[in-house]
Structure formats: structure tokens, C-alpha cells
Automatic annotation (TrEMBL):
It comes from the Eukaryota. Keywords: Membrane, Transmembrane, Transmembrane helix. It comes from Caerostris extrusa. The keyword Membrane applies. This is Mitochondrial import inner membrane translocase subunit TIM22. The chain crosses the membrane at residues 26-45, 51-71. Residues 1-23 are annotated as: Disordered.
Amino acid sequence: MPSFNKTGVLGPMGAKEHRKPGLTDSLTTGMGFIFGSSICILGQARKKDVVANHLIGGALAGSIWGLKCFMQF
């Protein structure tokens, strides 16, 4: 089991040492942007505020994650 040092960061082979913050943060930011903007655009275009807008927005945001796995950045 990995041990914590004085700063709270995991020691050798710890999870915090292997994180790639640039890729992960930009990916989740992009997913949030797609989700939020697609809900607004769909609501205005369809003139309805229904659950289907959120379902489609979630599918579009999930496609960003799928592209990341497919392209292997």
C-alpha cells in the first residue's frame, strides 16, 4: 500500500504523480461546454424545455469522451 509523505502526495507509484492535468482538465471542460451549450441551443430551436434536450446534450458530451478514447491523444 502506498504511503503518504508530509505534503499529502502519494509516494512511489501513487495516483497523484501520474495524473495528466492538462489533458483531463481540457477534456472535461470541453464536455461541460458541449453539454451546456447544446441544451440551450436545442431548447431555443425546439421551443421546448424537456428532458430530451438533456438526453441529447449528454450524448453529445459523451461523444467527446469517445473521440478521446478513439484518437488516443
